[in-house]
Design a protein that fits this description.
This protein is α/β, with parallel strands linked by helices and 378 residues long. Helix content is 36%, strand content 13%.
Length: 378
């Protein structure tokens, strides 16, 4: 007898009616959750087994495996009031940055109140695992455990590569280390795996930084959605909704036009921008241009590929969290920012991404190899 059948037999009486006398309602809900978790694991395993070869910079399916191996909480099929239109994906890894742990505890708590299903990537065994576990009992959630040093940006690219990027970062003193570059540039990879497995069967997806809600007035109340609009009614399905946050000129050495704290769209829009983002990323790497900031790379990606980006201007620049008002229905997102600087046509000859290759920086140049053991920079 399977584990699922065993659980079901505990729930069903001889006449096929759930027994009310032998178990409390809380016990029944726990059994229902176990059944649902088993169904979810089976579905995810099937989808994982059918995954296509991952596109660069992924070299394997480690991110999807983290979701597959994740802890499922807050998923009770007797409570179907959760928002089923959007999956929110986020991550938090604790290391030295310009904001303290106490600030992130406060900000992250506000995001975790949302009713949307979530996939949350965390360091296994960290205090953040228990932090999320306690605060996401009200809505479907998968806590996906993967070590920071096992992320794609930590493994496809060597320490020497990231040391080089840190050496050319004009804001190195603010960023403290190259760790922030890794998690920033990992976002679309986490989205890729989440969309392909799509455990909650949602048509649309949201990347939202764990520390997005700096002000409580912008955050959802407990068990209410972040996204209160139908994204694809206002934004074409093939386009990703982003925030046009600054109006830096093309000549700026640290040009930011797109905010990196939240992206919203259909699964199709994320998978399309994934390809264009890492194409732009590699195009810059190949000429030794700084790619540590995802805001730099996404700004250039959208400049090059206007067919896939929908930059939204909330009325003024430097409104860093202005997308929250739009998602709550308080701003119209249907219009592309008239101030955004698109190219008329995408570049004709971008550098071709080094599929299947690891990347390092050795003897003053970017190098690639199908095996990380082949790098010898001594």
């Amino acid at each position: 007898m399977s584990e699922k059948d065993s659980i079901m037999n505990k729930l069903i009486s001889d006449d096929g009616i759930a027994s009310q006398s032998s178990q409390s309602k809380d016990e029944e809900r726990q059994h229902i959750h176990q059944i649902n978790a088993l169904d979810m694991k089976s579905k995810l395993q099937t989808r994982y087994d059918d995954l296509p070869s991952p596109p660069w910079p992924q070299l394997d399916h480690r991110i999807a495996k983290a979701i597959l191996d994740g802890t499922i909480i807050g998923f009770d099929p007797s409570q179907v009031s959760f928002d089923a239109s959007n999956t929110i994906v986020t991550a938090y890894y604790q290391f030295t940055s310009k904001h303290g742990v106490g600030e992130y505890e406060k900000w992250f708590t506000r995001l975790l109140r949302a009713s949307e299903p979530m996939i949350i990537f965390l360091e296994p065994g960290s205090s953040w695992y228990d932090f999320v576990l306690k605060q996401r009992t009200h809505a479907p959630t998968i806590i996906a455990p993967i070590q920071f040093n096992e992320l794609v940006m930590s493994t496809t690219f060597t320490t020497e590569f990231w040391d080089f990027m840190f050496s050319i970062d004009l804001e190195a003193s603010v960023h403290k280390s190259s760790n922030v570059y890794k998690i920033w540039n990992e976002k679309l990879i986490l989205m890729y795996a989440s969309i392909h497995l799509n455990p909650f069967e949602t048509p649309n997806f949201v990347w939202m930084d764990a520390g997005y809600f700096r002000n409580d007035r912008d955050a959802p109340e407990l068990n209410t959605p972040v996204v209160k609009i139908n994204i694809t009614e206002s934004v074409p399905e093939e386009k990703l909704l982003l925030l046009h946050v600054r109006n830096d000129p093309l000549s700026s050495p640290s040009r930011v036009n797109i905010a990196g704290n939240s992206f919203v769209g259909s699964g199709k829009s994320f998978l399309t921008i994934y390809e264009k983002y890492y194409e732009t990323f590699w195009d810059w790497v190949s000429i030794e241009k700084f790619i540590g900031s995802d805001q730099f790379v996404m700004t250039e990606t959208c400049r090059r590929y206007k067919a896939y980006c929908h930059p939204f201007l909330p009325g003024r620049f430097k409104s860093w969290f202005g997308l929250a008002l739009a998602l709550s229905g308080k701003r119209d997102v249907s219009q592309v920012s008239p101030e955004f600087l698109f190219l008329d046509e995408p570049p004709s000859n971008p550098a071709i991404v080094p599929s299947g290759k690891y990347i390092s920086y050795c003897r003053n140049e970017i190098i690639t190899s199908p095996s990380i053991q082949d790098f010898n920079c001594e």
